[in-house]
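Reviewer 2 asked us to include a model.

Predict the structure of this chain.
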Amino acid sequence: MSFRKFEQDEELILFVREHTDLFAADDELTVSEIGDGNINFVYRIAAANGPSVIVKQALPYVRIIGEGWPLSQDRVRIEAESLLIAGKYCPDLVPHVYHFDAELCAIVMEDIGAQENLRHLLVERRRLPLLGEHLGRFLASTLFYTSDFYLDAYEKKEQVRGFINPDLCKITEDLFFMDPYCDHERNNINDFVREQAEALWDDEVLKREVAKLKARFLSQPEVLLHGDLHSGSVFASDTGTKVIDPEFAFCGPAAFDVGSIIGNLFLNFAGQSQQTGEQEERTAYQQWLLETAETVWTTFAEQFRALVSEHGTEPTLCQKAYLDWYLDQVFQDTLGYAGTEMIRRTIGLAHVADIETIEDLEKRAEAEKLSLAIGHALIVQRGEFETIRALKEFIESRYFSK
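Predicted model (structure tokens):
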């Protein structure tokens, strides 16, 4: 059997019946296409008033572009294997994988539709009491158990080999570290922030620091990363959190995942400055976002330390003095990668609803200027902040809505 795209509902129904035991023989199943459909096809197959599953199928190109933008289908294998690894260490925080079919480039996985997309929840100013702890625990578990602190030399090098992901890494390399720092045709810039964008293109200190961050991204295979950990890749509720879509997974610097998700909390902070609603309510939510970012980092760092102490296998790296130094470096680069996420989401190709839902372009520009200012500070001044609390106090003193 060779690759073929699912064309009929009956094909999908047969596929999930063959590879799961969730459905009774007499269940009438329905198929609906879900998701934004930019790159892959994603379907929900459900029984009436019964269980449901998700099928994700990867095409050999970017769906919305067509064959003019080829893309390796190996990304779906990478996604499936990454989910299986995460599921081994934090099963409550990722969807369960029922089956992966290499020839059809398709995954059958748990339907997490009872939870909602985190980006939408943040725009709506929903407070999620477990979010910071859950994200911190996901980061600590997935990054520790795929690192040299835990894996032996052979396992680690086999992991690096198995997660070579050049097509999707190239997208990240361009969108994070190149396009926003020059007048690139892919950029999407609000006319009211053109002046600020051009100032970034002329900022040699900023571009030097971005180059350092890019060099680490290119050359430091420390851990297995999710690789695209933004708030659109998280589903959440008051009682649970699920991280999805690790098709960008590869071995890179630990700080990249931590910084990406913290950067998304700060993007929402910037958006709330100009969103609808009473200022008091928006300011209170900005405070919650900063507290949640603090919880993400402190939970990650504390649980990473505990995992090294309890399960670390490499005695040279498990020394307390080295671990202290290592986490200090991760923290500083976390801030840098958070800054690159903010800047690329503001003037690069792919914007976010946190800011784009502000309809008035001049008001939106004020949120975008705030995002650029915080992003710039996170990159250029990252060495000045020794703790997440110091960063939180800096943002509170400089950037709260007046």
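The chain has a mean pLDDT of 96. Residues 279-311 form the longest helix (33 residues). We have added this to the supplementary material.
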